[in-house]
Design a protein that fits this description.
It contains 7 helices and 10 strands. The protein has 239 residues and is α/β, with parallel strands linked by helices. It has a 6-stranded mixed beta sheet with strand order 6-7-8-3-9-10, with helices on both faces. Strands 2-1-4-5 form a 4-stranded antiparallel beta sheet, covered by helices on one side. The longest helix is centred in the C-terminal third of the chain and has 16 residues.
Amino acid sequence: MPDISPANNVVRFESVGLRYGQGPEILQDITLSLATGAFYFLTGPSGAGKSSLLSLMYLAQRPSRGVLTLFGQDVSLTRRQMLPAIRRRVGVVFQEFWLLDHLSTLDNVALPLRVAGVREEEIMKHVPELLAWVGLAHYLHAKPSTLSGGQKQRVAIARAVISRPDLLLADEPTGNVDDRIAMRLLHLFIELNKLGTTVVIATHNERLVRRFNFPRMHLENGRLTLYAPYQDPAVPDEI
């Protein structure tokens, strides 16, 4: 069960609901605290609202009701000009990849570092090392149009983790890779987590969830339940 003391929270939801337009609520009464250095899987059937929950965490959406606090700041009270600085502390792996077609693999991954003003010598050291780790050492100068879906996925993951974000959100990050690469990527996320990054991975891959000793958040019918590691979603852990 996560530490719910405010000083230790990276993300905190208090009775949060989300609806699009005048439609029904996609998320209902979400109350949740994620501590610094936590690692959670996010599971649930298709359409349960997993991507919507992640979108709240990286500020692509605002709650329809309730309080969302990110890095100790109530986002509803945060001035709009301060939001980009908060977002830069969040790494996101999208299902759609969102790579820039005119940039090489190396330049796509280096983009967050260049935006942050990191020296080029540091970029040229760390980006190739990370790309080698995800199995793309021979694709540094390849453009996205020449890469397979699995390769694009690995580029997107490398871009999300290169700046060591405080919070990493990954939406089906192993959906386009084989089991060997999926395991390697999970170990990359675990190493990042050991450095203090809070990690949330949305996945349908039950084998990965059961193999690794991390708790899960499970969404069903718009409501969230926390489960202990390896626990079957029939007996919920106390929140």
